Amino acid sequence: MIVEVFGIETFLPGSQIDVKPIRDYDDYVNKTMEFKIIKINHKFKNVVISHKALIEEDLAEQKKEIMSGLEKGQVLEGTVKNIASYGVFVDLGGVDGLIHITDLSWSRVSHPSEILELDQQINVVILDFDDEKTRIQLGIKQLKPHPWESIEASVKEGDKIKGKVSVVADYGAFVEVAPGVEGLIHVSEMSWSTHLLSSHKFLKVGEEVEAVVVNFNIDERKMSLSLKQLKKDPWTDITEKYPVGSEHEGIIRNYTNFGVFVELEEGIEGLIYLSDLSWTKKIKHPSEFLKSKDKIKVKVMELNTEIRKLNLSHKHTMENPWEKYESIYSVGSNHKGTIKTIKDKGAIVLISNEENEVVEAFLPRRHMEKEDGSTLKKARDKTTDQLKELLEKAKQQRNYKTELEAFKKYQKAPMPEINFEAEFSLLSKVLEGVYLLEDYSDKIKDLVLAQGELLSAKMVVALLNKRGIACDFRDSRKYLITDDHFTDAAIVEELSRQNIHELLKNIPQNKVQIFTGFIGANTSGETTTLGENGSNYSASLLASYIGAEILENYTHVDGIYTADPDTVSNTQKIESLSFKQALELAHFGTEVINAKAMIPLINNNIPLKIINTFAPNDKGTLICKNPSQKKGIQILSVLDKMALIHMDGKGLLNKSGIDARIFNALGKEQISVSIISQGVSERGISFLVKNTQANKAQAALANEFNLDFLSNDVGKIAIEKNVSVLSVLGDTRETFSKAYKALIRNHIDPILINNTVNSNNVSLILKEQETNKAVNAVHSEIFGVVKTINIAVFGVGNVGSTLIYQILENNEEIKNRKNIVINVFAVANSQKIYLNKLGIDENWETALKEKGIAYKIKNLIDFVKQQHLENLIAIDNTASESFTNNYETLIKNGFDLVSSNKIANTKSYENYTSLRKTLKQQHKKYLYETNVGAGLPLIETIALLHDCGENITRIRGVFSGTLSFLFNEFSSSDKCFSNILEEAIAASFTEPDPREDLNGNDVARKLLILARELDLQNEFSDIKIHNLIPTHLRKGNKQHFLKNIKDLDPVFEKEKNAHPTENVLRYIGDLHGDLQSDKGILEVSLVSIEPSSALAKVTGADAIFEIYTESYGEKPIVIQGAGAGAKVTARGVFGDILKLS
Fold it and tell me: What is the pLDDT averaged over residues 765-787?
């Protein structure tokens, strides 16, 4: 506001008008008031004044007077001054107090404005105050009796009670059964079904519900409720409803690698093992056979009510066909079948019987001989390669005649009566000449290789005619005219087109024309070949000359995929591609498309369809000008067996003509260059050639630049062989970004990166041994298909084994929700490791025992490299210090880390920072949430507060779930301490050696971990630890300690009797002091706690942590929950795995 003082305009900031917030500035216009000048700027003639400063001076004495008269429990009258989301500020007549939102009402409050409004006059009670900081903590709800005091008489366990849902969380829902009285319905108590993923899917806030009281504790003011108890437990009469041998219908609820879970009714679920799904099919995963939520018929095979285990079978609901098949498919009987797939070891054949039942049969390769004597193959053996071998043997004057006779026999096998005399005679004469001369020319090579095409085409014609399909044999040498460049001849377009057009005039109707591929002839009539993939080129030329509507290419694959199916297991077939995309693929290694063969089709707009010879009715992949495929298609292609040539030197800088000299030299030697990369400074140039041409290229360049070497203008011409090109074809730069991130995350560093001007194609030059791993990692990232996370679990004790079973049980659900499969490829104890690329199953413990091998960490690393595994995470569930020495090795070999082992984070500060440095250098992550709070989000919360700049002033709490359980039981019962400790050991609440809990080291390590999260440089030796173990039990082995466990009883009984009976004992970790300095104060001790303290109210094996910050003041952030137990810790480790995934 502008205020006139002695005729001078001064400035009054809104914040300086009053100590109370100003709601309407118009109330002050034309009002005369007193002000204090707080700032004068003579240069700019600016004066700042304040009325608030005068009020504060008057209030200072008033505050002192009010504060001196305050007492806890005192009731005062005040005015609501301000309302915030966390509470209400009340003016007590010169001094403000805060009512925290939790102290407004015994009922749950979403916002303070629901209870109070501005300027409202209210009575408040003093809960606490601080004279120095003039902070006053107020309450309203404390003016009324606690509602729990009046409900005790009306509620008992087993009662049905009604209420309204007040809060819904993942773990359960709170129901208000009376004002200020809430009970918790845990998610496990909502239904007898085991498939409630979240309470949100079951209950809604505000919903009226009825529930059964299953636990009521007036002292702790806790009530546990159940919805499912309203219904009868379905397992009580399960033997009557689902006896062994009975058949039922159920719903598929969940998959695992070893079977499928079927729900028969709510709360009744059984498992069908893979082997019990079908009599006739070999099923690798249930998803091949069934879909989630499908209905399925099952038969009860086994029922165990004690452990609630129900084994089911689907195949036993049907008659066992093998009893019938045994007579139909007896040894020696003959049957006709259809080839489903052909593999290296044999073929899968589909055989139908008279009842149209289809049976899958395996045909071993040794039995793959047909009636005509020929052998069933993926495709005809490569005749061209056999002829090349015959030429080489003849040239080397080795015995080629035996193989030639075998070749003749093989070629005639499908039809022995066929006449191949002309071809065989020519081959015999030519090979004999080569043998005598010990050499052959490209012209002779073309002539020999052409015989393979002639033999194949004549055989096809003869077989088709025999089956009643009229056809003619056409020797392409009469029609396709080429130049004289033998082995890679170029077509003479005009002559070839005229020849085909002339032929079309004379072709008889209804006759199929069979042309030889790959071959042509020059104008002198000499045989030539059209180079690599020449048959495809021949076909596209013929299609263009006759004006075909479409060219269908029958090959050994179903079409074009997003990546090579032999390398990537979850590739997706592409229904259609543009000509441009197909050309890019052809250039970068896709075998089924040839760039040269595409040109005639593109020029004449003739679509090309790729179809599997063994699946002719399949859609295949269509390549055309305007494909139906949506924009954004992305494909991975690999060009292997390449070499990178790098040439550099100071004389190349700004010197014209260098590039021309390089490529002229390579061109003279007919060396093809695929990718070129040049530095901005032009001091170096790199390019790719085939491995086989690398040395030749180096020699050509050395010859061209020999004088430049002498003048030191060229420094070196280096070769790096055995590299691959991984090409990513897409429409945006985002495609490349995803690909590069996937590589870096998997510890793959490209040698070279090259992209096109329009950014539609990015090529990554990689070491050949990294290619498979790279393709799988990039494919998962780009296509959003199921990503496989490969994990190695070290330590298979309570936590480790529980984690493995949690992963196996939940993997299918995670796959459906997150598109992630967690593949446990390695499990290890201290002595053995079991490795399986495809992952473990429910029999992993037997596999580790029987198939595990003694190991060092190098064995794991070597296995990962050999199997090209990507997305690696190592899990440390050991308690071993020696194993933590492997962390840096694992990180440097591409592993992220998850650990429940605290030791790595509590070694020397030098080791601690060294590990973080390695993680940063290698772009890897290390998660260890379970190091401190088991499954509680403690480390994550502290790290977030610290990273956001929040000043954390103190952290204290019950850090050990084990010690929480021990002292809860000990403080509230008459049991001996040793008996309670034995219960904790049996429940797996303790470390393997319980002394690790009792000596305070476990709590101390946790406290040190939190200190280091705040960038404090404390060492373990800085911690003041109260060791709970009597001196004489500290040494010796675990068995010695357990044998003398009763010696603990008098020690703790004395400790208990030394404090007031109403107090409880708590083993507390406390981090305090100046936490902005290099080191804090860390203390671990057994203390007596008053019952009113939050630390005293923790129950069972819960842990509780108080985080004090500058912003939150005296009200700490409290995190409480289960602090011990294998299931809780394993679930926390599981959570860290999913965060990394």
Answer: 79
What is the topology classification, in CATH, of domain 159-226?
Answer: OB fold (Dihydrolipoamide Acetyltransferase, E2P) (2.40.50)
CB-CB neighbours of 1131 under 10 Å? 18
Architecture of the domain delimited by 391-631: 3-Layer(aba) Sandwich (3.40)
Phi-psi region of 694 (alpha: psi -120 to 50; beta: other; left: phi over 0): alpha
Confidence (pTM): 0.53
Query: Quick check: helix, strand or coil at residue 938?
Result: helix
Distance of CA 258 to the CA centre of its chain: 21
Token output for 404: 């030639």
Q: How far is CA 139 from CA 93, 240, 243, in A?
A: 17, 59, 61
Q: Are the CB atoms for 254 and 294 separated by under 8 Å?
A: no
Band of residue 745 on the pLDDT scale cut at 50, 70, 90: confident
Q: Using CA atoms, how far apart are residues 442 and 457, in angstroms rounded to an integer? A: 23
CATH topology of domain 636-783: VC0802-like (3.30.2130)
Q: What is the dihedral of CA 460, 466, 469, 475, to 10 degrees?
A: 30
Question: Residue 374 — very low, low, confident or very high, per pLDDT cuts 50/70/90?
Answer: very low
HEC secondary structure over 1-64: CEEEECCEEEECCHHHCCCCCCCCHHHHCCCCCCCEEEEEECCCCEEEEECHHHHHHHHHHHHH
The two structure tokens encoding residue 174: 């709170």
Bridge pairing between strands 75-84 and 36-41: unpaired
Q: Which two tokens stand for residue 385?
A: 């390669």
Q: Which sequence spans correspond to the domains of the chain? A: 2-57, 69-143, 159-226, 244-319, 391-631, 636-783, 787-924, 938-1124
Question: How far apart (Å, rounded) are the C-alpha atoms in residues 162 and 154?
Answer: 13
Question: How many residues in total does the chain contain?
Answer: 1141
Q: Distance between CA 480 and CA 523 in Å, rounded?
A: 10
